[in-house]
Amino acid sequence: MISDAVRGKSDRDKLIAADNRRDVQITLPWMGEVLLLALATSIDAMMSGFAFAVMQIEMAPTIITIGVVTTVLSFIGVFIGHFFGAR
Questions:
Q1: Where are the domains of the chain?
Q2: pLDDT digits (tens, 9 = 90+) for 9-56
Q3: Would you state the torsion angle of the CA atoms of residues 32, 81, 64, 40, taken in this order, to the nearest 10 degrees?
Q4: Are 79 and 86 spatial neighbours (Cβ–Cβ below 8 Å)?
Q5: Which residues of 43-68 are buried (b: 16+ CB within 10 A; e: fewer)?
Q6: CA angle, corner 19, sides to 15 and 20, nearest 5?
Q7: DSSP conformational letter for 21
Q8: HEC-encoded secondary structure of the chain
Q9: Phi-psi category of 24—alpha, beta or left, where left has phi over 0 and alpha has psi -120 to 50?
Q10: By the 8 A CB rule, do 48 and 65 touch?
Q11: Angle, CA 84 vertex, CA 44 and CA 9 arms, to 5°
Q12: How far apart are CA 19 and CA 3, in angstroms?
């Protein structure tokens, strides 16, 4: 994402430009990048699970805390993205 910002127009800008011309083009993200990010996320979650098991942490409060924090930060990210995306 940072490299796209430095280079210039992103895929989103291209789609908006295409939509403004009424010639809508739908592009799929590069699947290799998506698979790599999915793999990295899965490895991160697996390592967290191993760490919780080794540390013998109670799971219920941990799961609730992670869920609440993730939900709140996701909503904040959506609202910030909506605010800056509208400009």
A1: 58-87
A2: 555 555 555 555 555 555 666 778 888 888 998 999 899 889 988 998
A3: 20
A4: no
A5: eeeeeeeeeeeeeeeeeeeeeeeeee
A6: 120
A7: T
A8: CHHHHHHCCCHHHHHHHHHHCCCCCCCCCCHHHHHHHHHHHHHHHHHHHHHHHHHCCCHHHHHHHHHHHHHHHHHHHHHHHHHHHCC
A9: beta
A10: no
A11: 80
A12: 24
Structure tokens at 18: 């295409």
Indicate the average pLDDT of the chain.
78
Q: Could you give the CA distance from residue 10 to residue 1 in angstroms, rounded to a whole number?
A: 8
**pTM listed for this prediction:** 0.51
Residue 33's identity, in one-letter code, is E
Q: How far apart are the first and last CA of the chain?
A: 18
